[in-house]
Design brief:
about 270 residues; alpha/beta; Rossmann fold; 8-stranded mixed beta sheet; 10 helices; 8 strands; about 20% strand
Length: about 270
């Protein structure tokens, strides 16, 4: 366990994986908490890279300074964490909301990112925004998680759920377990609400031409949160970016085993 005091926030982070591997900063999505499973250290990345992951401000075991929070705040936190651990630069994998933070990070601190993976995320603005999850802010954590699960894969309509009851119940159970991680921590609920408010204002579209590092944009074909068209637009706006659409939804990293492998190959220079 380790914490980094960065301005007004005390960030909880974990550093592990293969110490002689390439350095990778993993930035998690909405409500991300390193106590939830599966997490980045359960992926193939941890076996081949030196992996750094953290709980973003207001989430997990990180502190929740007074809001409001901006997307720039989240990006600056990430840059300061890299400096704290002594990494001048690293590859960055940003998933969902973490992909939005990664976009701000590479734009605000371009020298800190040498390879960029933007997974199931959006640019905002004219490039398209991810589903407005702040509309679910009034729901309790479990209800909110279940609504998001319904959106996460457009194949999982009422007929699919009826025909695949066992698979659906397993997905619901996993979602409930993740949602229950921090339900008894008032600061976490506040931090999650502040994150959703910051997310509303995310828009990097007009600045993406400035991204100047190898970039992989990837996601799921059946994602109802970050639409495939958003991924296509994002990739088109970043010079030389690769686009990879997998046969999954918003949780394609768990649904498609090949996804993490291809991300790793990209990080290794493939």
């Amino acid at each position: 366990m380790a914490w980094a005091k960065i301005g007004a926030v005390n960030l909880y982070y974990e550093l592990g994986g293969r110490q002689d591997g390439p350095r990778v900063l993993f930035i998690s999505g909405t409500g991300g908490d390193l106590r939830a499973r599966p997490g980045p250290f359960d992926s193939i990345l941890a076996s081949r890279t030196q992996l750094l992951a953290y709980d973003q401000r207001g989430l997990g075991r990180s502190s929740a300074p007074p809001g409001p929070y901006s997307m720039a705040d989240y990006a600056d936190d990430a840059a300061a964490l890299l400096e704290h651990v002594g990494w001048k630069e690293s590859a960055v994998v940003g998933v969902s909301f973490g992909g939005m933070v990664a976009q701000e990070l590479v734009l605000r601190h371009p020298g800190s990112v040498n390879r960029l993976v933007l997974a199931c995320t959006s640019s905002g603005g004219a490039g398209g925004s991810s589903f407005p999850l702040h509309e679910f802010a009034g729901l309790d954590p479990e209800q909110r998680a279940l609504r998001i699960l319904e959106l996460a894969d457009t194949r999982m309509n009422s007929k699919w759920r009826a025909d695949n009851a066992e698979l659906w119940e397993r997905a619901v159970a996993e979602t409930r377990a993740r949602a229950a991680v921090a339900t008894n921590e008032p600061d976490r609920q506040l931090g999650a609400a502040l994150q959703l408010e910051a997310r509303r204002g995310h828009d990097t579209w007009a600045r993406l031409a400035a991204v100047d590092c190898p970039t992989l944009v990837c996601g799921g074909r059946y994602d109802g949160i970050s639409l495939p068209s958003n991924l296509e637009n994002l990739a088109s706006a970043i010079r030389g970016a690769r686009l990879r659409i997998f046969e999954g939804g918003h949780l394609f990293l768990q649904q498609v085993p090949a996804a993490y492998r291809e991300i790793l190959e990209f990080i290794l220079g493939g």
